[in-house]
Amino acid sequence: MADGNETVVYFSEQVIVLCSCALSFLGSSLIILTYIIWADLRTTPRRLLVFLSVSDWLSAVSYAYGVWRVFRTDSLDCIAQGAVSTFANTSSFFWTVAIAVYLYVFIVRSNQRAADSLVWCFHIVSWGVPLAITVAAVCLYKIGYDASEVSVGWCWVRIHAPDRILWMLLTGKIWEFLAYLTLPVLYILIKRHIHIAHAALSEYRPILATRPQSQSFSSMADMKLTLIPIIFIVLRIWSTVRFILLLVDSPARQHPVLVTLHGIGNTSQGAANCIMFVLLTRPLRTRLCAALFCCSKCRADSQDAAQRLLPGQDASTPREEDRSSRVETDG
What we know:
This protein has 331 residues and is mostly helical. The chain is built from 12 helices and 2 strands; from the N terminus they run αααααββααααααα. The chain has a two-stranded antiparallel sheet. It is globular and about 60 Å long. The chain starts with 10 loop residues before the first helix and ends in a 23-residue tail after the last helix.
């Protein structure tokens, strides 16, 4: 457990959370790379997912450093790590809500132009507000060692700050609570609209079944984006529980299981998004498998050619690259 207000972070907890950070780092990187590599997948919903992944990538890196170090004082790297994780974590909240708002306007209001016009507002709010809050917190010396009261080794709001509860709210919790209220409402409205639309068009299912395959893939991808709020709530709830236990001064917030769940939840969103929107998305999975197979085949051919190469023979021979099938999506 812990002595006084300090929550002990055990080695086993460090290992588990570091593994979670590594998976989130890889998952966020894969989402970003697939968006860069395949131009036909650059739809607006997936672009918003990339911005969310950038925030999750920064969170994974900063949290991993904090969990690895397990800070004990207000050192310079503690403050730097706390500032980066505060910015990235808060930005992740805003981008998650932004995706839900975009889908609501695009699907429920059936107004793609209005939805696309909101992207610039999303950038201003989702990057600007977290940056302003983080800069203010650092300048007012609110970021620092927090004794893992509502963290897992990393730094956040200084434990000795007299108004630390207020700054905990401003640097994350109030936005987390608002997301809990906003996301389910938007998600339910989207699902309700889809259900009504499907019911109204049920008599035309034979016609709809002949739609181009690209539209089917695009629709499936857009619908999967609605699962982001659910993933968000499931992963973030453990952090909220520990914060509430802190408010009531309950020692249960220091329980190793709750601390571990908190660490996993705060660092796993990138990995969860990758599983849902890359590995479980058939067009992307097919392309990745094709790319991996092509790379392994090329390496095997290269090794085989090198073994059979005669003295003085040039090893460089042109190779024909396999291309995976392109999947058309809405821009």
